[in-house]
Model the fold of this input.
Amino acid sequence: MQVLHSLPKFENPDLIVGVETSDDAGVFRLRPDLAIVNTVDFFTPIVDDPYVFGQIAATNALSDIYAMGAEPRTAMNIVCFPKGKMDIRVLGEVLKGGAEKVQEAGAVVVGGHSIIDEEIKYGMAITGVIHPDKVIRNVGVQEGDALILTKPLGTGIISTALKKGKASKESVQASVASMITLNDTASKIMRNYPVHACSDITGYGLLGHALEMASGSSVTLILESAKLPILHRAPRLAEKGYLTGGCKRNRDYLKDKITVDKSIREGLVEVAFDPQTSGGLLIAVAQKYAAKLVDELQANGVKAATAVGYATSLQKAWVRLV
Done:
């Protein structure tokens, strides 16, 4: 963010969402009834299977579109590949996994760009569409809102343990299943409710993305650790030290902006800091709609959907984990 401060500010009457509040995607109005939503994301492999890696990367990129309440339309591949050092069929499997997820989302791959690099990296730039009046931002949370999370936490911890050969087959399967599940159903259902704000949980972890929502809305978010949906054995693996570098960076950045109840098990705290890949949506909605929204999400296959906290008037800390 320090780098962004030195860049020129872009102003345009049709720019609905820019970089000011760290929203999940940019939104630009094309006409009174149509806006485009743009996002991009790519990263290094977090699983051994190239096809599954492609699926995860595409699902992760598409998630930003769903968090804004939009529908994806086109995708462009972003590829870094070590020419001559890896079988080219590996890249084919990565691209196949990504393409199939885009197809599942009802969008189309229209091209992309590749460069030679020492390490394989993959992701996508996604364009979606939405009515300008129906954009769901990560700001706008109101006092009293319930907070609903749609996927379990702990993907970063499990991926780290996998690299060390210490993650169980059950844990890895559950993590992969979560990461390759599109947020399309959750997004479509939430659009039927008067949702005040939404963000998908990715690299900044639950607490980092909650901070963005809270600071942009001038409220404090209370997250209840006992209610968090968590992947199998993630807290135990965290307590054994299988933490990503991103988890430690998240802790350092958030240490003076949030508070954590000292009675919470350390593994649960680490899960809340854990950077997620292709995580769920964190939805802020008036309390009176929360139970119905959770029930509808679960009834339509979003089994992990859980009310995990609420918003209150601004306190000393933007976010409290209790």
